[in-house]
Amino acid sequence: MITLFVAFLVSLMVALVLTLLVRNRAVAWGWLDQANSSRKVHVRPIPRLGGIGIVGGFFAPLCALFLVDSGVGYHFRSHKELVAGLFIGGAVIAALGLYDDLRGTGAKLKFAVQFAVALGLYAMGFRIEVIANPFGPELVLGALSLPFTVFWMVGVVNALNLIDGLDGLAGGVAFFGVATNFLLALSRGDMLLCLLMAALAGAILGFLVFNFNPASIFMGDTGSMFLGFVLAAVAIKTSTKSGTTVAMLVPVMALGLPIMDTLLAMVRRSMLGRPMFSADKEHIHHRVMSRLVLSHRATVLVLYGLCGLFTLTALGLNFANSAQSAMLLCGMGVVIVVMMRKLGYLDLRRAADVQQVRQRNIRLRSLVKDVTRAVRSAPSLQDVWNALRPLAEALELSRQELRFRRESGGLTEGIVFETQRPAGSAVPFEVSIDVKDDDDVLGSLRLVWRDGRTAINRDEELALEVVADAVAERAARLHAHEDVEPGRILALRR
């Protein structure tokens, strides 16, 4: 136990120091997560490289075991496949997350790397070969072991990434998963898994000092994907060594909140015709915050309580017999159904509108795809504007305006493209979206409706953000006044 405490303490201190250093350097160098998206909860720029502290804190005591001549160190080094899988796979996932935090990467590259890492772990012996069933005989996967293992690894990695939407939420959720695995390993006398979980617990708590609301740094994809990777890998080892009849259900229940949130997101986006990897504000933490009218911190604490309930259920499943396990699962199922009804996920009154919303979103996605393709290939700002003009009719706008500006001689010179169309006579509702290249504001996209609305449709808002990003990407490569024939050119003074 002394070794476990030392590992916890070392990882805690390393994570504290690293997170503090990364936060200060990120602020000095301007590596910040800008609050420039409607789905962002924070209102000021905040560093998002805190995952470096988690990764460093986790690996620090483990690396020390290679240098210490002790029984624990020998036992750790003797498990070569486990150590190699965690070190190599963890390093690759952390590097992918760091690259995404600094430069940004698409879903294709993310999934390619995640699938490659999962396949590598499978080759090293991280395999799910049996699915336990508390209501009957266990199911031997056979040839399905490989796809199921890969699906589990990739799914948990992205589940932790999706749940990272409020200060302290992803770290706290991961900590409950770590605590569950630690207690299960301790009950079996598996000191190696206890050591790994003690190191990860210290790293998480060291980071949470700076991440709990109000956060001064975010973990970013570096931290969320790394946490998901370690928990997914350790869960496989935990389940394969379990002698209970519900072996694989225990880690599933331990990570119940992020897994449930991910499944809900997949179903929701599929039914509503939204891109599967699009961002929205319909996650469980968003619903708890809005439906229950809770503060940021209160929402996180409520979800911590839910994670505690999942943890207790997971521990109960580990020690229960088949009948008791069935009762626990039924009880937890009732809790989940009640919670989903309370948060509006099972609102049958909205079911009739789903198909209509789906068709509208499919048309909107097709429009955005065509518009962004035309924008990215536009040879001039005039052509960028021409590519945007179909938005006016499709969105039933009364006015659409695109402004570009640049500094010149103390003035803000601007190029303004505009179009108007008869579309209602109600009080105008206006939306303005910044056209930004990193932190540099190139202009704005302004849209006005006169159809009586008082808020913009969420799907339209997300679509317009995608369009604005494409305009910014293209405009940054074009000279402000070359080959331009706008309807009018204005000098916009401050």
Describe this structure in words.
The chain has 494 residues and is α+β, with helices and mostly antiparallel strands. It has two domains: 2-268 and 296-322, no CATH class; 380-492, 2-Layer Sandwich (Beta-Lactamase), CATH 3.30.450.40. 61% of the residues lie in helices and 11% in strands. The protein is built from 18 helices and nine strands. It has helices at 2-29, 51-64, 71-78, 80-102, 107-123, 145-162, 169-188, 191-211, 220-240, 249-254, 256-271, 284-291, 296-319, 322-342, 351-376, 381-388, 390-394, 458-475, and strands at 32-33, 46-47, 130-131, 139-140, 399-408, 411-420, 429-437, 440-449, 488-492. The protein has a five-stranded antiparallel β-sheet, covered by helices on one side. The chain is globular and about 75 Å long.
Features:
metal ion binding, disordered C terminus, Glycosyl_transferase_4, Undecaprenyl/decaprenyl-phosphate alpha-N-acetylglucosaminyl 1-phosphate transferase, 61% helix, Beta-Lactamase, globular, membrane, alpha+beta, transmembrane helix, 494 residues
Strand order of the largest sheet: 7-8-5-6-9
Which segments are poorly predicted (pLDDT under 50) over 5 or more consecutive residues? 480-494
Structural class: alpha+beta
Q: Total helix count?
A: 18
- Measured as a percent range, the helix fraction is 55-70%
How much strand? 5-15%
Q: How many DSSP E strands?
A: 9
Largest sheet: 5 strands, antiparallel
What form results from the Cα inertia axes? globular
State the order of secondary-structure elements, H for helix, E for strand.
HEEHHHHEEHHHHHHHHHHHHEEEEHE
Measured between the Cα atoms of the first and last residue, the distance is 66 Å
Number of domains: 2
Please tell me how large the radius of gyration is: 25 Å
Mean of the pLDDT scores? Answer: 84
Binding site for Mg(2+): 161, 221
Transmembrane segments: 46-68, 80-99, 111-128, 140-163, 169-186, 193-212, 246-267, 298-317, 323-340
Subcellular location: Cell membrane
Keywords: Cell membrane, Magnesium, Membrane, Metal-binding, Transferase, Transmembrane, Transmembrane helix
